[in-house]
Amino acid sequence: xxxEAAIVLPLFLFAMINLLSLILxxxxxxxxxxxxxxxxxxxxxxxxxxxxxxxxxxxxxxxQSRPIVPIAAFPSxxxxxxxxxxxxxxxxxxxxxxxxxxxxxxxVFITESGSAWHRDRACVYLNPSVRMLAKEQAExxxxxxxxxxxxxxxxxxxxxxVYVTANGQRYHSTVTCSGLKRTINCVPLSEAVSSGRHACPxxxx
Length: 205
Ligand SMILES: [Zn+2]
Ligand SMILES: [Zn+2]
Hints:
Layout (H helix, E strand, L loop, with lengths): L1 H45 L9 E10 L11 E10 L20 E5 L4 E2 L12 E5 H6 L9 E2 L9 E5 L4 E2 L12 E5 H6 L3 E2 L6
Parallel strand pairs: 4-10, 6-8
Antiparallel strand pairs: 1-2, 3-9, 5-7
The structure holds zinc ion (ZN) (2 copies).
One zinc ion binds next to loops.
């Protein structure tokens, strides 16, 4: 019994440590993804007006993942972060309040359903972290603005385990629900404002 415990306990601890490091690794991975995107966007703007060369900017970052303890661990793997961005080829100002061709308007980020525009692609409101809750728990909890969560119209929210975000108002039965997923668009600031959006309190100020 004691001998068994002496073998099983360390194994269990190693497995737990490796599991935790795996979670941290995924967090770093998505932070890296955000940074690459931001860099790609800056490079794409810098490439404006330059003739020749490739049409796209391709960024890649490869990291080797290694378990902290090599016992009871996941196999080490290569993590690849990638970003492909078309070089900025200008914005058509014919319909807008078009000034000269030299107008360099700031580009900001918006989502389809969001009511704010963002300067920072990595803003938490653009990249909400999704939490997993029991359904009863979600019904009793409140979001960051103090509102109750209600079932999502798209996926119905009909499951024992549901998914919420701190700023959202709905709970979802699946993480892949379109109500949770966000398509992020990059538009000129004036367009974001004329569509009735306000500056993000976090990064737009
Ligand atoms: Zn923001
Ligand atoms: Zn949903």
